[in-house]
Design goal:
350 residues, 77% helix, 0% strand, 15 helices, Na+/H+ antiporter like fold
Length: 350
Amino acid sequence: MSSLDILQTNLLSVPVLCFGLGLMAVAIRSDLKIPPALYSALTIYLLFAIGLKGGVAVSQTALADLWLPLVACIAIGLFIPLWIYVVSRRVGRMGPADAGGLAAHYGSVSAVTFIACQTVLDLSDIPYEGFMPALMAVLEVPSIVVGLFLARRGMLALGGPSGSGAEERPASGAPADEDVPENGWGTLLHEVLTGRSILLLAGGIAIGWLAGPERAAAVDPLFVGPFQGVLALFMIEMGMLAARRLAGLRKAGPFVAVLGVVAAIVNGTIGGVVGLLSGLGPGGAALLATLAGSASYIAATAACRVALPEANPGIYLGASLGVTFPFNLAIGVPYFIWLTSTLAPALGSP
């Protein structure tokens, strides 16, 4: 399949078209709204369904086939927030809090972008390893911790609660750094590990692994058949959210917009190459590229609100949800699939 065929398949897929519908709804000032309770239910359904499917695949996967991609995934999760933080500080001239917020978001992953890539691979008849959702759950955590650690370290090094004097004060009512309790990092880890994203993904993986394919088949009518329809409704809300974040992006400046695109391409390319070298096939490597090239707007955002209130949400959400998410849906995912399919023969991928 050519790169143009992949691009067309992606852009004409129902989830991406529904995302466009959400963008249009905001642009024309429609009164369309997804009730918060329904949005929450859709999120719970999608995350658990992904984890369950991945857990069943893990139960059928030998450890010898899993350990190298797992190590590669952790390495990517540690590297990405480091370079994002350094570039944001030195090129973007950001304070440590905002740079750390960006680092945490770009090192973490977007489950919805992952699902979009899965959809395109399925429509294109490109196979991929079933245990990839397990790698998504693993990649979610290390980068958030690294990003927040770099932010706190930079703030303490510069002195003062925010690390940048009067230019970057804590949010109203937010505790200064010296007021954070000694078990603050323990609290942070608890928030990250018990947040609904990780809990549903990891819980679904554990249940799928313990149940195995035969027992899990009993719930296929709920978690397999309706999946694409639920995703379509969810993507309408994602389109509206992304459109609303564009205002915050304009205030953040051109650097954030450029970083949102560059980070997707660079991180995705690294993820794709590393995936192929770790033994993944072209489809699995494309999914790892998608994970590396995406940016979180759920788990990382929740962690930053708790542990990094000094960071400006308009910057990290404007970049992740306003730039990187729509870019990946339109261009990133087709590029990642084309990249891994093209490089696979040269790198000896199966």
